[in-house]
Write a structure and sequence with these properties.
Blueprint lengths: L1 E6 L5 E5 L4 H10 L6 E5 L5 H13 L2 E4 L3 E5 L22 H9 L1 E5 L12 H8 L3 E6 L2 E6 L7 E3 L5 H12 L4 E5 L5 H12 L3 E4 L4 E5 L9 E2 L4 H13 L3 E5 L7 H9 L3 E5 L2 E5 L9 E2 L11 H8 L5 E5 L8 H8 L3 E5 L2 E5 L8 E3 L3 H13 L3 E5 L2 H4 L5 H7 L3 E6 L2
Parallel strand pairs: 2-14, 3-13, 9-10, 17-18, 21-22
Antiparallel strand pairs: 1-22, 1-23, 3-5, 4-5, 6-8, 7-8, 10-12, 11-12, 14-16, 15-16, 18-20, 19-20
Helix pairs in contact: 1-2, 1-6, 3-5, 4-5, 5-6, 7-9, 7-11, 9-11, 10-11
Bound molecules: uridine-diphosphate-N-acetylglucosamine (UD1).
Uridine-diphosphate-N-acetylglucosamine (UD1) binds next to helix 1, helix 4 and helix 5.
């Protein structure tokens, strides 16, 4: 059984290079299926989730070649409709294959969608949106089956909630549809902008002005392009929080500060000194942190994917902080493990109340999911003594070279195995 052994209490100091964004890579790689040809993708993070997704793409008939600084993705061959890769089931990122396969083949046949166990994760908005583009779609024998009735046709779609995945699926499916698609109440996450930028470079006509209305004028075909994925704003936020909670001083290299401004603002409010300079952000611990209140919201609000890491930080801040989680109903799973380390957290529905304690004690904890695992890692790095984090594969799913990066910042961490 694998675990991370962490010797905590050492301030993290130095530079850390931010990797490419996992949640931008998924829809962009899916959208690449709309194009026939060879493309180079730079800044694809070599993390478990993306490597598994590449296996799914191979299974569909895509040629994938790994080079030192980029991946070559060749989508020239026929793309299969059948998904047999077992990797598929653990990935939420596969959800955008729906729009991609409908756009490329006029048909999709997908097993149930996977991902972190952080809530029920319905896909009604995806189904409603794709249906309105002229697609017969529904569940049949555990499979989501979609088939274009006549041709894919643009339409006006209103999303009841600005769902990231539904917005991405609609952008992808509408790119090669005839006529105009307008998505109202669309998600505004930076990963959506990155998807639109990639498709526009390949010849699509997607207009996104940040107002939550996206206009897609269907084009006849797309051409191959080489593309560099944006930096990961969640990884950026995680290291920033780790630096501050360990009373350190770290500089994020190659990040987009405007993509995680809400996190920067909250850390400043808690008493940290954060300075942004171009594509660099420095986070310094200056004084005892004090509690802040957080409510997770769609972008540009505070990201749900950084909520568990902030919970870890608040567990030793002065005073009481309240976190309201409005996106996923099952996202406080790290709390139980933080309590084992001495945290004082009370949960009531979608609200958690965290009263800062003097210090956390190292302990044996289990990563409940990806970001919950990151929260436990931050807590272990800042706590006194030795911690073991079990099921670290959750963390590996989303953080590239995490052990190397933490050691580079002066942290003491090792990947170990018990027979
Ligand atoms: C994406 C991210 C995930 C992040 C989330 C919110 C990927 C691979 N994952 O997930 O890391 O936490 O955005 O920023 O990009 N909903 C419905 N019906 C639907 C779709 C969604 O009710 O058809 C609800 C969900 O249950 C949830 C909310 O909408 O409560 C947000 O979900 P959504 O934005 O779709 O998240 P994902 O795309 O799954």
């Amino acid at each position: 059984m694998e675990y991370f052994e962490v010797h905590g209490g050492i301030p993290l100091k130095g530079d850390v290079n931010v990797s490419g964004a996992k949640n931008a890579a998924f829809p962009i790689l899916s959208a690449a299926l709309l194009i026939k040809g060879k493309m180079r993708f730079y800044n694809l993070p070599k993390i478990l989730d993306i490597l598994s997704f590449l296996e799914v793409l191979k299974d569909l008939g895509v040629d994938v070649q790994e080079e030192k600084d980029y991946f070559i993705i060749d989508t020239s061959k026929d793309i299969s409709l059948k998904i047999s890769s077992k990797e598929y089931y653990n990935l939420r990122g596969t959800q955008t294959l729906l729009g991609a396969l409908v756009g490329r083949n006029g048909e999709a046949n997908l097993p149930s969608l996977g991902g972190c166990n952080i809530g029920t994760r319905p896909i009604d908005l995806h189904i409603k949106g794709i249906k309105s583009l002229g697609v017969d779609i529904g569940w049949e024998g555990g499979y989501l089956r979609a088939k274009v009735k006549d041709t894919l046709k643009g339409n006006l779609v209103y999303l009841d909630f600005p769902s990231v995945g539904a917005t991405e699926n609609l952008i992808i499916a509408a790119t090669l549809a005839s006529g105009e698609t307008v998505i109202e109440n669309a998600a505004k996450e930076p990963e959506i902008k990155d998807l639109a930028r990639f498709l526009n470079l390949a010849g699509a006509n997607i207009e996104m002005n940040g107002s939550g209305v996206i206009k897609i004028n269907g084009v006849k075909n797309l051409h191959p392009v080489d593309y560099k994925i944006i930096p990961d704003r969640i990884e950026s936020s995680t290291y920033l929080i780790a630096g501050i909670m360990t009373k350190g001083d770290i500089v994020l290299k190659n990040c987009n500060p405007w993509d995680f401004e809400s996190v920067i603002m909250k850390l400043r409010e808690a008493g940290a000194e954060i300075t942004a300079n171009g594509n660099e952000v420095r986070g310094e611990y200056k004084e005892k942190l004090h509690s802040v209140n957080i409510k997770t919201l769609p972008f540009p609000g505070f990201p749900t994917d950084v909520q568990p890491q902030m919970m870890a930080l608040l567990s030793t801040a002065q005073g009481t902080g309240v976190i309201i989680e409005t996106i996923f109903e099952n996202r406080f799973r790290a709390a139980e493990e933080l309590i084992k380390m001495g945290a004082n957290i009370r949960i009531e529905g979608n609200t958690s109340v965290i009263t800062g304690v003097k210090k956390l004690e190292g302990g044996n904890v289990t990563a409940p999911d990806l970001r919950g695992g990151a929260a436990l890692l931050i807590a272990s790095l800042s706590s006194e003594g030795k911690s073991k984090i079990f099921e670290p594969f959750h963390i590996d799913r989303g953080y590239e070279n995490i052990i190397k990066k933490i050691i580079g910042l002066g942290g003491v961490i090792e990947r170990r195995n018990i027979a």
